[in-house]
Amino acid sequence: MGTKKTQFPQDSARKVLNEFSPYIPGKSLEEIKEKYGLDKVIKLASNENPHGPSPKAVKKLTDNKDIHLYPQKSYQNLQSKISQKLGTNPGQVIIGNGSDEIIKLLAAAFINPGEEGLMADITFPIYKMAVKELDGKVTHIPLKKYTHDIDQFIAQITDNTKLIFICNPNNPTGSIITHEEAEKLLSSVSKDTIVVFDEAYREYVTNPEFPKTEMLVDKYPNLIALRTFSKIYGLAALRVGYGIGSEKLIEVLHKVKLPFNVNELGLRAAQEALDDTEHLNYSKEQNDQGKKWLESKLKSSKFFSPVPSQANFLLVKTEFDAEKLAGELLKQGVIIREGTSFGMPDHFRITIGSKSDNEFFIEKLSNCEVNLK
N6-(pyridoxal phosphate)lysine modification sites (predicted)? Predict the structure, then answer.
C-alpha cells in the first residue's frame, strides 16, 4: 500500500511572498546549442567580465590550505586590504556574499513594517525585493532621461522614508549622478534615513564627476556605498561584495549578518584581485574600446539607439519588439537581456563582450534586422 502524498500548505508562507516569483535562470549554453543546433553561443546578458578574473586570483584558488577552518582571518584580511585601498578604517567595511546580501542586510536592519524604501522605477530589482520582504513600502521615482531625478527623490522624502537606493551607474541604463548631486541628496535627508549608493560598476566609470563616496562616509554617517568583485574583478561565481560606511552603521549591519557569510576561497581571491591593477586596467581599457565600437555600429542602423553608458553594458532602444529580437538572437547563438522585465519592452541590454563576441553579436544582429523587417 503506497504512502499517501500530502501537499505543502502554501497558506503557511508569509502573504507578502505572493507578490514574488522565484528566480529562474536561463538555459545553459550547452542546452541552447543542442536546442538550436549551434556550434557557438555567447552570453551577453549578465554584465560579467569577458576577460575573466585576475590570473593571480585564479592561482590563489588552488591553495586549499585551511579550508577546514571557518574563514574569520581571511574576512579580517580583506577588510584591512579594502580599507587601506580606500583610506578608511577596517571597522568601516562590511563584506557580503555578493553586494546583494548587504542590500538585504540593510532592509533587515532598518526597515520596520510600513516604513518606506525610495528607489527609481527602472533600476536593480533587488532593492524592491529587500524592502517588500520586510513588509516595507516601496516608492518608485521615475527616471528623467534615463537618469535618477535627484530633485524628485528629495521632494518625495518623508518622515517615513527609511532607505534610499541610488544605483550608480544605474542598471539597466548605465547613467550616473554626479558628486554634486550626491551631496545635494545627502544634505537633504535626516540622519535617520539611510542612503545607499550601489556602485557595482564604478570601476568602469570614466566621468570625472562621479561621486567619491569613500570621501563622504565620514561627513554623512547615514551613507553606505556598495561595491562588488562580481563585475570588473571577474569573480561573479565566488560571490564577494562589500560596503563602506560609518563605523556605527557597519556595526548595526553586523548584528544581522550571519557569521562566516563569505567563503574562504572567495575572500582569498578578492584580496589578490584588489592588488592586480594591471588586469583591472586591461579590463577597463578593453571595455572602453568595445563600448565605443558597439555604439558606432548600433548608431549606424536606423533600428537601434544606444543610451550613453558609464558601465560595461549598453541599454539600446529598438524599433523592433525587444522580446522577439532577443528570441531571434537566441536562435543564432547570442543571449541578451530584453527589457520587458525592466518595464521597457522597446529596449534591450547588451554586455560589452570581448572583441570577437562583439563582432559575432553585430553579425547576428544584422541577420535579425533582415528577418524582423
Answer: 231
